[in-house]
Amino acid sequence: MALTLAALVAERPLGLRVRAAEAGLDRQIGWVHPTELTDPQAFLEGGELLLTTGLALDETTSPGYIRRLVDAGVAGLGFGVGLSHESIPQSLVDTAEEVGLPVLEVPRKTPFIAITRAVSRAVAADEYASLVRTGKGQQELTRTAVGKGGPGGVVRKLAKLVDGWVLLLDSSGAVTEASPSARPFADGLQDDFARLRAGTLVTVAGEYEVVLQTLDTRARGVLAVGTREPLDAAGQHIVNTAVSLLSLALEQNREHVGALRRLRSGTIDLLAAGHTELATRTMKSLWGGVPEAPWSVLAVTGAAGARRSLADSLDAEVSGESVFFGESGAFVVALGDVETVTLLVSRTGGLHAGLSDPVSTVDFPAGLRQAKQAAEAAKAERSPLVRFAEHAGRGFLEMVDSQAAQAFSDSLLAPLRHHDKTGRGELVASLTCWLEHHGHWDLASARLGVHRHTLRNRMRKVTELTGRDLDSPGVRAEFWLALQVSART
C-alpha cells in the first residue's frame, strides 16, 4: 500500500502539522519533490508531495500558485517555515482549503531530505511488497495451470488473487469458465466484448471496474476481471500472467483436440476401407470402447463452420462407448446410438443428415454409402434428416406399377387397419413413428406420448397380426414402402 499524507503526518519525528484540507490526507504520495518555482507544472507528473520554503511567494501570489498545483495534480504541499516565511501566508492556506489541496507545515528543525527519505523508504517497501505479491501470484497461477485445475482452476485462482471475479469468454462471447458468482456479469459485458478486437478494454459493471483482455490464441478469447478498486501494478502483472497461461493452455488444448479429431477421421477411413479389426482395436485403446453393433451410420453435411460447431458439441457431449464419430471428406460421420447426434444436428442448424439402415461392423462401408446418399438427398430437399430406407423407397416406388404397389400396401397393412378400427390401439401410426425413428423406443414413444412398454406391446401386436418379424431389416423396409404407398393415396 502506497504511503498516504496521513501516514506521513503520523511520523512524529518529522513534526508535520496539517494547515489546510485535512479531508484530503488519504491521498497517496507517488514521490516527493522540492522546488521554489512559482509554476512547476511542466516538471510534474501528478501525485507528488511538493516541498517549498515559499521563497517567491507572498499573500498576493500564493492563491494563483495553489491553483497551478491543483491543475498539475499534486497530492499535497509541504511548506517549510522559519526560512523565507515565519508562517505560511494566510492567502495560501485559505485558497488551499477552498480547493481541497492538503498543506503540511514543515518546522525549521525538519530538513526536506528527512521527508524525502521517509517517502523513499515507503515507496521502496511498497514496490518490494508488490514484487513479492506478483511473484507469489505468478507461482500460484503456474502451479494451478500445470496441475489438474486447467483453465477453470486458473480462473478461480486469479479471482482470489485479485479479490474479485473472473470470466473466460470464447469467440462468441459465451462463458467457458467462471469464478464463483461471476456468471451474472456476462450478459452486461456483451456490448463491450463486441467492441474489443484486440488488446485491453476497461469498463464498468455495477460497482466493479472490469478489465477485458484478449487472449493470444488463434481462436479469439477474452478474459474479464472485475474488481471493486482499480488493479494496482501487482494486480496487472498477475492478470497478464493469467492471460499468458490461459493462452498457452487453450492453444495446447486446441492442438490436442485437433490431433484427436484427425485420429477419429483416420479410424473412419479404416472402417470404410474394410480394416474393421484394426479400427475397432484403435477405438478400444484410445476411446475406451466400441459402440455395440448393429450400427446406425449417420452422415452430416453442410457448411464447414456448421460442421466444426457440431464436432465441438460432439467432443463435449458424446461418449465413445455408445457412439463414435469422425470426419470423412465433407461429412461428419457418427455410428452407434446416434439419437443424441441427431438432436445435436437439429440444434446446430445449417446441417443435413442421412441415416443408414442398421449394419454390422464389417458392413460399415455399405452403411457409410447409404448415409452419405441420404445426406445428399436431405441437402437437396433442404431437410434436416433423411433416412436411407425412405430415400431408397421413393426411388423404388417410381419404378413399381402404382396398382401393384397399392395392392401390396393394402394387403400388408390390412390387418393393422382392421385392428385400429376396433379402437384397441393405433398400430399404423405407432409403426410409422417407430420406423421414422429407426426403431429407437424412447424417442418414438416420446413422440407418440405413450410409455415405451406400450409401444413395444403394439409392435408385438403388429408381428402377431402380420406374421412378419420386425427385427428383420427387409421386413422393416417392406412395411416402410407400404406406408409410403399408403401416404401417397
Can you characterise this structure?
With 489 residues, the chain is of the alpha/beta class. Helices cover 52% and strands 16% of the residues. It has 17 helices and 15 strands. The chain has helices at residues 5-9, 62-72, 90-99, 112-146, 150-162, 190-195, 233-272, 276-287, 304-317, 339-348, 364-381, 388-399, 402-421, 427-436, 441-448, 452-466, 473-488; strands at residues 17-20, 31-34, 48-52, 76-80, 103-106, 165-169, 175-178, 200-205, 208-214, 222-227, 296-302, 323-328, 331-336, 351-355, 385-387. The strands form three sheets. It has a five-stranded mixed beta sheet with strand order 1-5-4-3-2. The chain has a five-stranded antiparallel beta sheet with strand order 7-6-10-9-8, with helices on one face. Strand 8 (200-205) and strand 9 form a beta hairpin. Helix 4 (112-146) runs antiparallel to helix 5 (150-162) and helix 14 crosses helix 16 (452-466). The protein starts with a helix and ends with a helix. The relative contact order is 0.05.
Structural class: alpha/beta
Provide the low-confidence segments as ranges.
none
Using the alpha-carbon principal axes, give the shape.
rod-shaped
- End-to-end C-alpha gap: 85 Å
Strand content: 15-25%
Largest sheet: 5 strands, mixed
Q: What spatial order of strands do you see in the largest sheet? A: 1-5-4-3-2
| Helical residue percent band | 40-55%
Quote the average pLDDT.
86
How many strand segments? 15
Task: Supply the number of helical segments.
Answer: 17
By oligomeric state, this entry counts as single chain
Radius of gyration: 38 Å
